Amino acid sequence: MEQESTRQQKVGKQLQKDIADIIRLQGMAMYGGAMVSVTAVRMSPDLALARVHLSIFPSAKAPEVMKTVEQHSRVIRGELGKRVGKQLRIVPELMFFVDDSLDYVARIDELLKK
Questions:
Q1: CA-CA distance, 92 to 49, in Å (whole number)?
Q2: Per residue in 20-69, pLDDT tens?
Q3: 3-state DSSP assignment of residue 26
Q4: Ramachandran quadrant class, 2 (left: phi over 0; alpha: psi -120 to 50; beta: rest)
Q5: How large is the greatest C-alpha to C-alpha distance in the chain, in angstroms?
Q6: Backbone angles phi, psi at 99, to 5 degrees
Q7: Chain centroid to CA 7: how far?
Q8: Which residues have CB under 8 Å from 6's CB, separation 6+?
Q9: pLDDT at 109
Q10: Does 102 have pLDDT greater than 80?
Q11: What 3-state class would DSSP assign to 52?
Q12: What topology does CATH give the domain 6-113?
């Protein structure tokens, strides 16, 4: 994967903050009591696509939460448009992915304890 430009990184960081805020405002109840955090946002070179990485706790609820997020992606994108519409020409399409790096760390810890 190629290096992101400074602009891609800046836009990604801003979107990360905004999407995290939107998800937080929707509340944990909407996601079945799971805690959802935005760990990273990677932008395409033309800034038309944002790959949003979500960390979900407990991870057992990840499939259920991802389904809910996908169903509400238009609402999230619409809310995002209200926030960044003045700065960006187009509001990027959002693609959501599970960031399971915490599970990976926990698994490594588990293996090291044996």
A1: 5
A2: 999 999 888 888 889 999 999 999 999 999 999 999 988 889 999 999 99
A3: helix
A4: beta
A5: 54
A6: -95, 105
A7: 19
A8: none
A9: 80
A10: no
A11: strand
A12: GMP Synthetase; Chain A, domain 3 (3.30.300)
